[in-house]
Design brief:
138 residues; 70% helix; mainly alpha; Four Helix Bundle (Hemerythrin (Met), subunit A)
Length: 138
């Protein structure tokens, strides 16, 4: 893979999709590391980031617009329609819940709750990932 400078645009959409997908998985891994370190705010925020970045991969691959925070909901609606997986309905809410935890006082955060939600985000990534491969196989 060619290393791009920060000022260079992506040469191909497929490269951007791969980058978004990889970053989503890295965020999920990092979220679990933060959880193990009892950094609950960062664990939750990286869980949200994992979902958001996989959504970016889907949007990029499908040619949908996703460049603002509130477009996450639009992408998730379309992803649910494409995947036919009704779990996306509540899993997108799990991602949003994790994002909200970033703004919650630590004394009100529960490590076991965050851990369970990160497991659900892993499920969401698994549902979304095939939608990032359609252009390459279609």
């Amino acid at each position: 893979m060619t290393q791009l400078s920060p000022m260079e645009p992506f040469d191909q959409a497929g490269e951007a999709v791969a980058d978004y997908r990889q970053q989503a998985r890295q965020f999920l891994t990092k979220s679990r590391q933060y959880l193990a370190e009892d950094d609950l705010h960062q664990a939750a925020e990286k869980g949200w980031g994992a979902a958001a970045w996989m959504a970016k991969a889907v949007a990029e691959n499908q040619g949908w617009t996703y460049n603002k925070h509130d477009q996450f909901w639009d992408v998730m609606y379309l992803a649910e329609q494409m995947s036919g997986d009704q779990r996306v309905k509540y899993l997108k809410g799990t991602a949003n819940l994790l994002h909200g935890y970033f703004y919650t006082r630590k004394r009100f955060l529960r490590p076991d709750d965050i851990a369970g939600n990160l497991d659900l985000i892993a499920t969401l990534l698994d549902i979304l990932e095939p939608l990032t491969e359609l252009a390459a196989t279609g």
